[in-house]
Design a protein that fits this description.
37 strands; 2 domains; about 30% strand; Glycosyltransferase; 17 helices
């Protein structure tokens, strides 16, 4: 029995099944994504979504979908499914009898006496393979496959036009074509000889219900160049391949089996997390990067460093950790890392990404026991960042006389709470944010530790007075004994006493500027007002600005994004801070929180963890169905549980 499976009644219930999404990435930048019944509900869904570097630095949907039609005794049964305004056509979901994810997604379709299995996987060479196996048939059976092409940036939608290239070229067991010049050709081939009928056409007003709900444009026109027709044999399989390079069709059966061997089985909660973690890694030449989330995120600097230890060290891959760090270090501009984009298109507005870099490097050094080598390799970059923050850099980031960091610029959101509505940050947090200064202290202390091991006493003498000053300044600036928690942001005489989870980060870092007693009080109020089974709320429900549900158009969602919405990634720092204080006696609570996520494996992004959840019970999922730091911090919690269990 598969770890994740659904019964027939669940599958044919569209209200249930259309919420369940599959994401498969190939570690080379491509991905495939759709719902478990094959009906695309997002513009980001597609069977082959891959980079088109000749056009831009983003992914493009080449092959959106395929509709299969089973033919017996001249009767045709279209088993595909597509949404149009006010209707579904065809309604192939009514033929679905089973779906499992292990070891790869497999749909079982029954039409009369015909039983057909459909298995899908994505290869590293930007190729989707689909294996069709005719399990049962009482008479000769054919299958017609109609591909739907989009050929557009995955953030946009395709519209019918007269510019599409309608030509095609026959290739062995298939055909190759592209919709527009500059794009890669799509090579569609089969493991046996097929007939291709070229009848170009547009299918208009295909509706993406998730985009409609999220307030975006949601109607698309897809191009279908024609269809393939192939005879099926009972008990035998055929392989369909769609890739940007041609392949020898005789290799397809062997390639499919070979690819299967490389799949991490999703046969347990832990393996689902591990498999999901591996999908965020993208290798482009010598660059190794982390995708922040699927399906619409690219690489984010902040997310990279926060999620890196969990995605690499927690699954026993320190080399991956170092490769990502080295990739990012090469893109450092002054003391700042790109937060979004790279090169000339990089957006640098993140005050915390450079400080999370120190933490990720610190975790790597601790895991590999290479603290004595860190300064020699990374010391110059570490000093560049520290000096930049001390002396002042972009966005008014500058150390104050009390040793703390002040940052902010009107209209900019520099911390991870970065939602902007109508040009205005929802939580601008201009001034001295609490987690920024906790991270700043940790960065200085880790640098001093590394410099001491390298006998660089000049650096130590330059920074030790600042390091000694910060704990006193931090407590004096952020702490209120009567309230029993830390201010979220301080700017001059103004102190924001909103109960937010940012203070929790001060409890988890290797070097904390506050005492154990204060850390314990922070965790207590966080448990009372912020902690949920899905992570920490971004604002206490007692606050008048609290928004308990994350839904609606972009402006509505962004207004709630950091005003009560729950984020799973924060749970990693809550768990670490909690276990540092309670040790083994706190394990049962943390284990319960960790195990509570097992039920979400079949809830939204199948086998993965969503980006956010509602602040209000029952904490409905939202945002991206698979988010890097959500997955990474659960993996890190698992390792923390192991660590404290063995003490």
């Amino acid at each position: 029995m598969s770890y994740i499976e659904f019964d027939k009644l669940q599958l044919i219930n569209l209200e249930y099944s259309l919420n369940k999404e599959l994401i498969r990435a190939n570690r080379s930048g491509s991905y495939a994504s759709t719902t478990i019944i094959g009906c695309n509900t997002r513009k980001y869904h597609g069977l082959l979504v891959c980079p088109q570097p000749a056009i831009d630095d983003e992914n493009h949907v080449l092959l959106s979908n395929i509709h299969e039609t089973i033919i017996q005794r001249d009767a045709e049964f279209n088993v595909g499914i597509q949404k149009y305004p006010n209707t579904y056509n065809p309604k192939g979901h009514k033929y679905i009898r089973d779906f499992v994810t292990e070891p790869i997604p497999k749909l079982t379709i029954r039409v009369g006496g015909v039983v057909l299995n459909k298995e899908t996987l994505l290869c590293e060479d930007h190729r989707t393979l689909i294996r069709y196996t005719l399990v049962e048939a009482n008479s000769p059976t054919k299958m017609k496959l109609r591909p739907f092409l989009a050929y557009r940036n995955y953030h946009k939608l395709s519209k019918a036009n007269v510019f599409v290239e309608k030509r095609y070229e026959p290739i062995e067991n298939g055909a190759k074509m592209r919709m527009y010049q500059g794009y890669s050709y799509l090579h569609m081939q089969f493991s046996k000889n097929v007939e291709y009928v070229h009848v170009p056409d547009w299918y208009n007003n295909i509706e993406y219900i998730e985009e409609k709900e999220r307030g975006y444009d949601y109607l698309e026109d897809l191009y279908t160049p024609g269809f393939f027709e192939v005879e099926l044999e009972k008990g035998k399989s055929i392989i369909f391949s769609a890739g940007i390079e041609e392949i020898d069709p005789s290799e397809l059966i062997e390639l499919f089996e070979k690819e299967l061997l490389h799949r991490t089985p999703r046969n347990s909660f832990e393996n689902c997390l591990k498999n999901s973690a591996e999908q965020f890694i993208v290798k482009k030449g010598k660059k190794v990067e982390i995708i922040a989330g699927f399906p619409w995120f690219g690489r984010w600097g902040r997310d990279t460093f926060i999620s890196l230890p969990g995605l690499s060290l927690s699954i026993g891959n320190p080399q991956l950790c170092k490769e990502v760090i080295d990739t990012m270090v090469k893109e450092l501009k002054g003391p700042l890392f790109p937060n979004v984009g790279s090169g000339g298109n990089a957006n640098m507005h993140s005050v915390d990404a450079p400080l999370w870099f120190f933490w990720a490097l610190q975790e790597y050094a601790d895991y590999t026991k290479t603290q004595d080598k860190i300064w020699e390799e990374y010391g110059p970059k570490m000093q560049l960042i520290l000096d930049g923050y001390k002396n002042g850099t972009s966005y008014n980031i500058k150390m104050q006389e009390n040793g703390l960091i002040w940052a902010g610029e009107t209209g900019k959101a520099l911390t991870w709470m970065d939602a902007v509505v109508s040009g205005k940050p929802v939580t601008p947090r201009i001034g001295m944010p609490v987690e920024i200064n906790a991270l700043w202290y940790n960065a200085i202390m880790f640098s001093i530790e590394s410099a001491v091991l390298a006998e660089d006493m000049e650096f130590v003498s330059k920074w030790h007075e600042i390091a000694d000053l910060i704990p006193h300044s931090f407590k004096e600036t952020f702490w209120d004994k009567e309230k029993g928690y830390l201010a979220d942001v301080v700017n001059g005489d103004y102190k924001d006493w909103s109960v937010r989870p940012n203070q929790v980060i001060a409890t988890s870092l290797p070097y904390s500027p506050i005492s154990e007693q204060i850390r314990n009080l922070i965790l207590e109020i966080s448990a009372k007002e912020l902690l949920t089974p899905r992570g920490l709320r971004t604002l206490s429900p007692k606050d008048p600005n609290y928004k308990g549900q994350y839904y609606g158009d972009q402006a509505t969602r962004d207004a709630a994004y950091h005003q009560g919405t729950v984020w799973p990634w924060l749970l990693g720092h809550y768990a670490e801070g909690y276990l540092k204080i309670h040790s083994k006696s706190g394990l049962s609570n943390i284990k319960s929180l960790y195990k509570g996520f097992e039920e979400v494996m079949r809830e939204h992004g199948i086998g993965s963890i969503s980006e956010v959840y509602d602040g209000d019970p029952p904490h409905h999922f939202g945002g991206a169905p698979s988010q890097a730091w959500s997955v990474s911090e659960l993996l890190r919690i698992q390792k923390l549980i192991e660590k404290y269990s063995n003490e």
